[in-house]
Amino acid sequence: MVNQTKINELIEKRVKAKLGGGEKRIESQHAKGKLTARERIELLLDDDSFEEFDMFVTHRTKSFGLDKQKYLSDGVITGHGTIDGRIVYVFSQDFTVFGGSLSETYALKICKIMDMAMKIGAPVIGLNDSGGARIQEGVRSLAGYAEIFQRNIMASGVIPQISSILGPCAGGAVYSPALTDFTIMTDQTSYMFVTGPKVVETVTGEMVSTEELGGAHIHSTKSGVSHFLAENDEENILLLRKLMSYLPSNNLEDPPIIRCTDPIDRLEDVLNEFIPENPNQPYDMVNVISTITDRGEFMEVHRNYARNIVVGFARFNGRPVGIVANQPKYYAGVLDIEASRKAARFVRFCDAFNIPLVTLVDVPGFLPGTGQEYGGIILHGAKLLFAYGEATVPKVTITLRKSYGGAHDVMSCKQLRGDINYAWPTAEIAVMGAKGAVEVLEGRNINKIDDAEEKREYITQKEDEYTKKFANPYEAAKYGFIDDVIEPRNTRFRIIRALELLANKKEVNPPKKHSNIPL
Ligand code: HXC
């Protein structure tokens, strides 16, 4: 009987803990269109796989009457479970308890699961919905954040770290998600900023709404802070599960290979006709990607940010890869500051987690102009160059059309340790396009011609000559910079064969404390 009384006490405590800040606050959370911290975990993990830690933790603060206000779990639910049978650690901030604000004990709970995740080599997923530092705890809360930041830094490149933003995330609290690998924001209900609209107005006089300052839309289009934009909590968490399916559990594992039912040797005749006659006519690179990947699937990262370059995950014969591709549909696929940063970060992520890189090239060059130069395109472009050159994962590159100048070198060329570099017969690999080349090389001769018609004819003739000589893949193939010129319709098979060949590739960089990538 005594035992049963004690068991009942445990059951009661569990029920109480699961109510978080109480039914009223749960209702208010639902009224905002948000799920509760526990509902989110349930959706994220495989059925019945969640094991909770530290349910009975409460805060230790006595000031501001907080000693009379205690909630089991203290505003954050932590533990582990599985996604598709693979272990992950998770923390989920409970807005119903002190607005999900972070106390010292709350931080310790998060640190505990991060430490465990590092020990066993499992990813950490953070579901964020918090008013930031618990004001009543003062500097102890700030210290708690720093403890988490330090763990984020140590875990970077060792285990995948993913952040979903499902409510407020403000002040220094934004830096934990920023230190993680991917951030997924929910439209309308989540926001991130270092200083809120009121402080912005006081300091700068600028009037701006929460949504305009740090809403999901802004961070998915303008700042690039968010990698994925979800319509609601459910979509956010499903995206998270999908993303995890491409990733290994840690840096010592390979990403999970799944059984592929899509024929590896299917020929796609449509690709033979894909490149337009007119070299300036755009096309959608995403169509090329979905024609060649397993079942046409492509999980695009940063879809609405720096759209002149496309990055994301796909599979070839069941093997996950990271795809980086210039997008002729936006600004002719030119490389600029944002595109360079976006792609560089993605390349480094893939390299850290043993995910091979497939690069599809159609790039007219770097965007010229003072805007770019003053913004430091030299340094940002160098980031992408550095990322490719440093990467030791298998690298397969296909040049579809243009590959000009510095941008040719940057986009995983042979000399940046590209393992297998193919080109379509439509490729144009050269220092610059015909128009620019003729202007430079023939400028003096052109200026000598007075008659406009004659001038036009001369320019056209010289451009044709240049195009014939340089705007093709064979000049590069002649030197072995391109391994083979392939039929476009056979691209899927050639990529799959290249990746199988490279599956056991071993390449190591020289020992060093760390590299000094141009930041
Ligand atoms: C303690 C907090 C809190 C906080 C909210 N609450 N934020 N308690 N510390 N930081 C409590 C509220 O008192 C309230 O309690 C409950 O949570 C819900 O808050 P509401 O204001 O009613 O909710 P809502 O209207 O949805 O507004 C949410 C909010 C707002 C926008 C997050 O609460 C807010 O502005 N909070 C302060 C945010 C902030 O300035 N945080 C510090 C940032 S600086 P009751 O009992 O009434 O339900 C920071 C530094 C980190 O975080 C540094 C790391 C290096």
Could you explain the architecture of this structure?
With about 525 residues, the chain is α/β, with parallel strands linked by helices. The protein folds into 3 domains: about 1-245, 2-enoyl-CoA Hydratase, Chain A, domain 1 (Alpha-Beta Complex); about 270-430 and about 470-500, 2-enoyl-CoA Hydratase, Chain A, domain 1 (Alpha-Beta Complex), CATH 3.90.226; about 435-470, no CATH class. It has 20 helices and 17 strands. It has helices spanning about 1-20, 25-30, 35-45, 105-120, 140-155, 175-180, 195-205, 210-215, 215-220, 235-245, 270, 285-290, 335-350, 370-375, 375-390, 405-410, 435-450, 450-470, 475-480, 490-500; strands spanning about 50-55, 75-85, 85-95, 125-130, 160-165, 170, 180-185, 190-195, 230, 300, 310-315, 320-325, 355-365, 395-405, 420-425, 430, 485. The strands form 3 sheets. Strands 10, 11, 12, 13, 14, 15, 16 and 17 form an 8-stranded mixed sheet that branches. Helix 4 (about 105-120) runs parallel beside helix 5 (about 140-155). The longest helix is centred in the last third of the chain and has 19 residues, at about 450-470. The protein starts with a helix and ends in an 18-residue tail after the last helix. The mean pLDDT is about 95. The protein binds hexanoyl-coenzyme A (HXC). Hexanoyl-coenzyme A (HXC) binds near residues 134, 145 and 168.
